[in-house]
Amino acid sequence: MNGASTSGGESVIGLAVLGKVAGVLIALVAFILLCAWLTRRLAPGLSHNRIGPQMDIVASKTLGTREKVVVLQVEDQWLVLGVGGGQISCLHSLAAAPIDTPAAIPSSDLNEVDSGSFPERFARALGQNLRSKGKGS
């Protein structure tokens, strides 16, 4: 009878030790998560104090399921980037305009851009593109 009670006592002690270890692990994970939360909450400016040029996203437009065009301001210059297919391509760069006012568009281009629906404007732009390529070759 002593042998049966001894093995039962050992299993209870084993479960108690296992419970203590699990409790310590849970407390340790909770402590790590609390430290990460406090770091983000109390020091939000640390991630912005990088050395190098200041970059801001001025505009972004989705073109398809994986493609988009992004206008990125790097110091006093705007970069028009094409993002898609796992790569980023610089499409154009220009001097930065103030964000609160629209970029300066010549009035001749403004009338052409605003007239008609999108399919009409697209067909007109495609025709101009094909004509300019035809003259170049």
Automatic annotation (TrEMBL):
Compartments, record wording: Cell membrane; Bacterial flagellum basal body
Positions of transmembrane segments: 12-38
Keywords noted in UniProt: Bacterial flagellum, Cell membrane, Cell projection, Cilium, Flagellum, Membrane, Transmembrane, Transmembrane helix
InterPro entries linked to this entry: Flagellar_biosynth_FliO, FliO/MopB
Family of this protein: Belongs to the FliO/MopB family.
NCBIfam families on file: FliO_TIGR (TIGR03500)
Name recorded for this polypeptide: Flagellar protein
Taxonomic source organism: Microbulbifer elongatus
